[in-house]
Amino acid sequence: MLEKALEKANKREKSAKEEGVRQQKAEIRKQDKLSYVERKSHSVKSDLTSSKIELTEVINKKNKVKFNWDYLKEQGFIQLDDSHNRIFEEFRTIKRPLVSNAQGSKKEEIKNSNLILITSSIPNEGKTFTAINLAFSIAAEMDKKVLLIDADVAKPSISKVLGIKSPIGLIDFLETDELSLSDIILETEMPGLRIIPAGKTHNLSTELLASDKMVALSQELSERYSDRIVIFDTPPLLATTQAEVLASQMGQIVLVVGAESTSQRFVMESVKKLQNCSDVVMTLLNKAQRNLTTGHYGYGYY
After folding, report:
1. Of 31, 111, 166, 286, whose CB neighbour count within 10 A is largest?
2. What is the DSSP letter of 108?
3. Closest C-alpha to 152, from 269, 262, 242
4. Is 270 domain-assigned?
5. Is 115 helix (H, G, I), strand (E, B) or coil?
6. Is residue 48 part of a domain?
């Protein structure tokens, strides 16, 4: 009887060990099945909850980004329900030559014509303000599609202004082969607008933006998505080398100049950096005041 009892006890112990091993293996398999996106989401969860700007919630990539239009109105951005206000009218003027170059008769003459880079000479000239408003204005048209990319990877401004909380973005895509382009594109409440956030900070971000994978991405966006206008918001030209690196891959460049604040020397240095990058460089005078008596006209608000 003792031998039988001991044998039963050994079997139960062996069975318990086997069950423990099975559970451990199942947990390992479960962890292995977690995608790169999910792992990144878990790792930055605490960072997301500490954000001060509660404008939108991006739980996963299938959710549509919704904008806080009251906040954006306070900051002077375009309002889709008021298409006759001054800022909307001004961006109609700004976008027209860019859209014409990207999808009009000159399209074949300009390499990567649908790729538009927005930059400035120094910080605080309004390049992100320009990039977002330009994207809103173009996407508001019935037959236009826009992809807005936050390529200011050192100080991502688009996500901050629009309240986007996404754990992955452009830098993550360039760093790993585990992500596809669709993994980092966010849908928005505007049917014609998609957004790619900057992603995580990286000490080799300039090298990643200059990599063959980035060149291949630019080529894909130009050829495969030729019906879509792609807007890149980049760092100031004189602050980092990232904008200059990306400029060589663009078809059109908008150089935002802060009126009454940016020196002519800075502007000329920036233009010099761009002279071999693109056939189309447009300068936009921002923060200027309209003066109807003298005929001077500028774009402002930020």
Report:
1. 166
2. G
3. 242
4. yes
5. strand
6. no
Q: How many CA atoms lie within 13 A of 40 on its CB side?
A: 22
Hey, which residues does 283 pair with through a beta bridge? 255
The pLDDT assigned to 67 comes to: 94
Q: How far apart are CA 41 and CA 63, in angstroms?
A: 14
Mean pLDDT for the chain overall: 81
Contact between 168 and 176 (Cβ < 8 Å): no
The residue range of the domain holding 261 is 54-286
Pair 114, 226: CB distance under 8 Å: yes
What are the backbone dihedrals phi and psi of residue 116, each rounded to the nearest 5 degrees, phi first?
Answer: -120, 125
Q: Which two tokens stand for residue 183?
A: 């993994």
Instruction: With a cut of 60, say whether residue 38 has pLDDT above it.
Output: no
pLDDT tens readout for residues 79-104: 988 878 888 999 999 999 999 999 98
257 part of a folded domain:
yes
Count of structural domains within the chain: 1
What are the tokens at 235? 């760092």
In a domain, 245, yes or no: yes
Go through 214-253 and write b for each residue having 16 or more CB atoms within 10 A of its CB, e for each that does not: beebbeebbeebeebbbbbbbbbbbbbebbbbbbebbbbb
Instruction: Quick: pLDDT tens for 194-234.
Output: 999 999 888 888 899 999 999 999 999 999 888 899 999 99
